[in-house]
Design a protein that fits this description.
Rossmann fold, four-stranded antiparallel beta sheet, seven-stranded mixed beta sheet, alpha/beta, glycerol-1-phosphatase, EC 3.1.3.21
Amino acid sequence: MGYKKSPPIYAKICNRSPYRQPGGENRAEIFLPNQISLCSQRNGEFLCTQLTQKTNHPRHFRHGRSLARHAFNNCISSAIAREIYDYDGELRFFADTEKFYTEVQEKILARYNKTFDWSLKAKMMGRKAIEAARVFVEESGISDSLSAEQFLVEREEMLQELFPTSELMPGADRLLRHLHAKGVPIALATGSHKRHFELKTQRHGELFALMHHVVLGDDLEVKQGKPSPDVFLAAAKRFEGGPADPSNVLVFEDAPSGVLAAKNAGMFVVMVPDPRLDKSFHDTADLVLNSLMDFNPSEWGLPPF
């Protein structure tokens, strides 16, 4: 139900691979689209040597793929030790609040005989409120009539009534409870400020209590909104036992700016975009899914359902 990019990037985090060699070198066989490579890491340097060209011989191809997949899965299982979920105002992972933003912003633009489309929405998604507001009034051409600050005040009044009715998205409850039960540390990183977050989650307090910690957009460490990595780096610092290595973190996102923020933080990203989002925004993510129901933890070395 989704697609994954080919694995070369994943090999870079195989620093605890079972293919450990004397002298501090780590190795893993990695299956690439046109070859099988032996990859090694020594003293921070990462090198891959091509072993075999991919052939059309089914037995050879299956055997090579099997070996490489085994090494790849073992590599990932040692690497993905933390998960961070994004939960911005316009995101759909846990509470379905995106539709509320769309509804309100359509009403505001209608007064100016303008329409709110997905090209504009994509530019706003994942950003801090004031940053998204500036994009909204400037890109829609209404900045002479409505300032970013005025837009936020007007939008806030309407959202306050809608947020408490938020419903969970398919797959969110199952995935969170599963990972928590298996001892996988989970955090939440969001551009939403405290007031909005509390409104959106007030019906789902038990589920959100499973998070190890939450970092909000008005956190003092979050100096800049996405695509700056601030919110994700702040979240990675606060896991029990000390800061998590960003390369050991898997992020779930649906906003293009959020995907970029996670990649800028040096993390892996699973994107679950709205189907109306242009597919050109999918390119940066490591994995793209239609729904959280399609996520297979074992593909990332996490405990299977």
